[in-house]
Automatic annotation (TrEMBL):
Pfam families: ManC_GMP_beta-helix, MannoseP_isomer, NTP_transferase. Residues 362-475 form the Mannose-6-phosphate isomerase type II C-terminal domain. It is an enzyme of class 2 (transferase). It comes from Acidiphilium iwatense. It catalyses: alpha-D-mannose 1-phosphate + GTP + H(+) = GDP-alpha-D-mannose + diphosphate. NCBIfam families: GMP_PMI (TIGR01479). Belongs to the mannose-6-phosphate isomerase type 2 family. Residues 14-296 form the Nucleotidyl transferase domain. Keywords: GTP-binding, Isomerase, Nucleotide-binding, Nucleotidyltransferase, Transferase. This is mannose-1-phosphate guanylyltransferase.
Length: 480
């Protein structure tokens, strides 16, 4: 990046892709709150782990490309991680990685087309950060000379869930970097065994390092439809609070294609840096078991989990005590509304369970009982015939939309904090242990004017209690 003197700034711009849904990690990861927002391997979420890896000296604030529906979750998690200056770019819908990366490159190219971008998914695990940064240094030097560089992970097993890269000849002048001979799709087990035997094949990490100029030039040359659509979407962008909202019509016209298929597998500028960094895409529960801390019997547990007389199990609970006794090689995942029990060898097939739930139109396929909103979250406690009880938590300074319902009345009981409630033409300050009734059809709003989270119990009653029974008149967060 150029500074005021015309000298080149050597900082690297992290580009974090946060659009995945992590279906194979159901029931924890779901479309409404996917795996990158969960603490799966440490006390920090996967997004926070990724941002922390690319922070400090030598790094610019990150650009995070995220699904529009997740914008406030991303913003809050970056704030908690002290990722100052982060920019969040919103996709109108998922169109795979190529258009997302192109839009990020366009943003950087506005100020410095020769800036180096480090592109990575928000949901990978890396155990050896020092080795990663060493490999990154090699990749950056090659990228500055016009190469598109990826990292080849040295395989530790004949993994069939990853794509592979075959190493070509050494890259002149860049010790540790090689040209790419070919990319290989996820192989069968026998093929994978053969690939890792010769030492020339590596797992494809999905991380890329290149300048904005190189990425855009190769996209124009090899995937002009992606380049064109991304340019239209970028030129139509709008600032929405702290977000960069890409133009919907242009972005949706882009082919749905990955950066691998769009340019990486077709360009003559592709290079690979082999590395042993303890990488995993943590794309299944067995993969999480692999990287988790284990006891002497090979068991790993998280949350309210008890394991007795068992071996090589992974047990995780998001609430209820979950006990496993006398089992081997199983995965047990407990959430408030769903339980998964599977053999560790079958965890790659969890998506088939999700697909069946979708066919049956079960809400558990895509959303949790706890639903996050820009202002906080709500969760259903009890649901019966013509009534429902919810817990609602509103963050300090946040407010719900000004709204009304056609089919339900609501009774709000404040249990912590204070609520400023608009009810038609009236305004009420409702304190702890006080309540307010909202009759059917009244126009109302809930506001937390205090400095602590507002918690209230909502009792709904009526003929229809669906979330789509809402008319918004005014909304701080731009929802319709």
């Amino acid at each position: 990046m150029a500074d005021g003197t015309g000298a080149r700034n050597e900082t690297i711009v992290p580009v974090i892709l946060s659009g995945g849904t992590g279906t194979r990690l159901w029931p924890v990861s779901r479309k409404a709150y996917p795996k990158q927002f969960w603490p799966l391997i440490s006390g920090r979420t996967m997004l926070q782990e990724t941002a922390a890896r690319a922070a400090g000296n030598g790094f610019a604030p990150p650009i995070v490309v995220a699904n529009e529906e997740h914008r406030f979750i991303v913003a809050e998690q970056l704030r908690e991680a002290d990722a100052e200056g982060a920019r969040i770019m919103l996709e109108p819908e998922g169109r795979n990685s190529a258009p997302a990366i192109t839009a990020a490159a366009l943003l950087i190219a506005e100020t410095d087309p020769d800036a180096v971008l480090w592109i990575m998914a928000a949901d990978a695990s890396i155990a050896d950060t020092a080795a990663l940064l060493s490999a990154l240094g090699i990749a950056v030097r090659a990228a500055r000379e016009g190469f598109i560089v990826t990292f080849g992970m040295r395989p530790t097993a004949a993994e069939t869930g990853y794509g592979y890269i075959e190493r070509g000849p050494a890259l002149d002048g860049h010790d540790g970097a090689f040209r790419i001979a070919r990319f290989i799709e996820k192989p069968e087990a026998a093929t994978a065994t053969a690939l890792i035997a010769d030492g020339r094949h590596f797992w494809n990490s999905g991380m890329f390092v290149a300048t904005a100029r190189t990425l855009l030039a190769e996209m124009e040359r090899l995937a002009p439809d992606v380049a064109r659509a991304s340019r239209v979407a970028f030129d139509a962008r709008q600032l929405d609070l702290d977000f960069i909202r890409l133009g919907a019509e242009g972005f949706r016209s882009s082919p749905d294609i990955s950066i691998d298929y769009a340019i990486a597998e077709r360009t003559d500028r592709a290079a690979v840096v082999p590395a042993a960094i303890g990488w995993s895409d943590v794309g299944s529960w067995s993969a999480i078991w692999e990287v988790a801390a284990k006891d002497a019997s090979g068991n790993a547990a998280m949350g309210e989990a008890l394991i007795e007389d068992s071996a090589r199990c992974y047990v995780r609970s998001e609430g209820a005590v979950t006990a496993v006794l006398g089992l081997e090689d199983v995965v047990v995942i407990t959430t408030p509304d769903a339980v998964l029990v599977t053999h560790r060898d079958k965890t790659q097939n969890v998506k088939s369970v999700v697909d069946r739930l979708k066919r049956d139109k079960r809400p558990e396929a895509e959303a949790h009982n706890r639903v996050y909103r820009p202002w906080g979250f709500y969760e259903s406690l009890i649901q019966g015939d013509r009534f429902q009880v919810k817990r609602i938590v509103v963050m300090p300074g946040a407010k719900l939309s000004l709204q009304k319902h056609f089919h339900r009345a609501e009774h709000w009981v404040v249990v912590a904090g204070s609520a400023l409630v608009t009810r038609d033409a009236e305004t009420h300050l409702v304190r702890e242990n006080e309540s307010l009734y909202l009759p059917l059809g009244c126009v109302h709003r809930l506001d937390n004017p205090g400095r602590i989270p507002l918690t209230l119990i909502e009792v709904q009653s009526g003929a229809y209690l669906g979330e789509d029974d809402i008319v918004r008149y005014e909304d701080t967060y731009g929802r319709s």
